[in-house]
Amino acid sequence: MAGLNLRFTDEELEALRERAAAEGRSMQAFAHDAVMSAINEHSRLFDEAAEHVLKVSEELNRRLA
C-alpha cells in the first residue's frame, strides 16, 4: 500500500487530534475518511453538474445532430 505524508501547522494538527479523539478514532483513520469523503463529494458534484448540462442542452443537441 502506498503512503502519503501530509504537513499540518501545529494548530491544524491539534485540531485533528482533538476531533479524532472526540470520535474515538485514530488521527490516521479520521484523516483518511475525511480525504475519501472529499473525493466522493467532488465526484458527486461533478456528476450532478454534467447531468444538469446534458439536460439543459438536450434540445440544442437534438437540433444540432
UniProtKB/TrEMBL annotation:
It comes from the Bacteria. This is Arc-like DNA binding domain-containing protein. InterPro entries: Ribbon_hlx_hlx.
